[in-house]
Amino acid sequence: MSNIIKLLPDSVANQIAAGEVIQRPASAIKELLENAVDAGATEINLTIKDAGKTLIQVTDNGCGMSAVDMRMCFERHATSKIQKAEDLFAIHTLGFRGEAMASIAAIAHVEAKSRPHEEELGTCLRIEGSKVISQEPCPCKPGTTITVKNLFFNVPARRNFLKSDTAETRHIFEEFNRVAIIQPGIAFSLTHNNKLIYKLPIATEKSRIVGIFGKVYDQRLLPVEQKTDVLTIKGFIVKPQYAKKTRGEQYFFVNHRFIKHSYLNHAVTNAFSELLPADAFPSYFINIEIGPSDIDVNIHPTKTEINFQDSRYVYAVLYSAVKKSIGMHNLTPTLDFSVDPQLNTTLGMPPEGEIKQPGIHYDPGYNPFRPGKSKTETQPPASFGRQPQHNWEQVFRQETAQPSTETGGQTEFSGMQEEQSGSFFQIHGRYIVCNVRSGLMIIDQHRAHQRILYEFFLEQLSGRQQASQQQLFPQDFHFSAGDISILKELEGLLRQLGFVLEDFGANRIVVKGVPENFDSNNIRETLERIVEDFKTQHSQPGMDNSIRLARAMATQLAIKQGTLLNSEQMADLFNKLFTCKLPQQAPDGSLTLSIIPMEKLEQFLSR
């Protein structure tokens, strides 16, 4: 029998290893940035073109490398960080596995220039697909410059699986943020397609977060700090009222290395349990300093997953630290029976001895039987997509005669022709109730309005441009680079809805126009919701940007639970709902209405 097991050629083995470490341009950038940090750099500049597919260049002013070290750093499992197995449990650096540079060189055209500070000349090394093309002395600044061109040039299958430039750019921004946030003592810059995206000077921890995510975070951050004999926790949490619908700004670092750890995330979420709605997630930037012997970082090629020797202890300390920060800043309701009465004046309460008896005010001309609207009835927010009023019976019969194609004709209302008395009433500011022939119809006002707005926005995005209301005083907003890229990707669709956005530079946009009847005070909140929904739904296949945008707009602008409606407004919402193609479902698939049959009502009363 002939032997069938053979050693793989080095070129094939290198490409397999590269597939584990370098999955996309952002993976190469992560490794290069971490190497620059380990080199002791105080300034790191990142330049990319075409989302890193054409060019990635990282320049630092670190210690530099000799000619021999330059050649050795591109060999597999060659590293200066560890010498023996015991060193794996005493790692203080970001990179140590000795795979990154070899993996990058196996699938790209690489040019490396490096010069130690004490040397007069540096070394220039060129490698293409693991093959050394040249190595020669060259003049260069102290430090190291790594230039990566044509990533995946010899692995076309991997290149074909890359996402759009916008998506890959967002991954690059995220990897850049993960390194820059936790290294405030290093100045960073990021340039994409010859445009400066970030220019981050040396700063404090809080200033670095504000520099990346915008000035609005200056008022949103709360410090977290806890020190024990085993570990030290330090960082920031974001106030609960600014929680997002996606796991956006959630950054854990262990010894200044970004990690993902669902168990620790549960500790933070649990500390926020009484302050956040069920569909919201806390934001945080937390670093844990712990002895290297108490963790194992050598369990994943990208080093983003680690094991703690005592995870329960870390969980308890982290939970306590976050809970302490929340309590210190009075974010939880408390009852304090030891308050000094003299402090009441600072709370807007008169001190003892000056309490006045409240007066009685009444309207002597008030007539409860006088016809007309109640003054206490509040108006709901102005809604988009006002459709002409229809008689609900005609609309209802039209719906039942033409079943919706979205559900294959299987609707809850097929063959039904209900009659309604014309009276509506509201329950707890959430539900609209009216009687129909078969029983009692209950409508969720928030979901119903979502369906109305969703179909209206889809119509606008299908080709007919919405009129724009120009802003007398244009507003500018700061977003992170990743969020800006999403808004730019959606700019054409946003313009169809009536938004007029202009790039102001330095991750700022100017809003010069909004849709008609749009509340200008909700611009930032609406744009943030659009971005967050895009992140949440981006991974869902078969959903285009128009549907994502229509959903986000409908969710943000629909009347909220607790909004009081008068009879005319309830009837208007009812009529508009039954002009929709699919009135019984909200955009997320949940039911907008339900009918309680007479039989059920009789059963309730007969118990």
Give the integer mean of the pLDDT values: 79
Tally of strands: 22
Low-pLDDT segments: 334-353, 373-421
Oligomer: single chain
What can be said about the biggest beta sheet?
Answer: 8 strands, mixed
The CATH architecture name of one domain reads 2-Layer Sandwich
Helix content: 25-40%
How would you sum up the global shape?
Answer: elongated
CATH topology of one domain: Heat Shock Protein 90
Percentage of β-strand residues: 15-25%
Which class of secondary structure composition applies to the elements? Answer: alpha+beta
CATH superfamily caption of one domain: Histidine kinase-like ATPase, C-terminal domain
Count the DSSP helices.
17
Rg calc: 31 Å
Task: Name the descriptors.
607 residues; 17 helices; alpha+beta; 31% helix; Ribosomal Protein S5, domain 2; Heat Shock Protein 90; five-stranded mixed β-sheet; formyl-coa transferase, domain 3
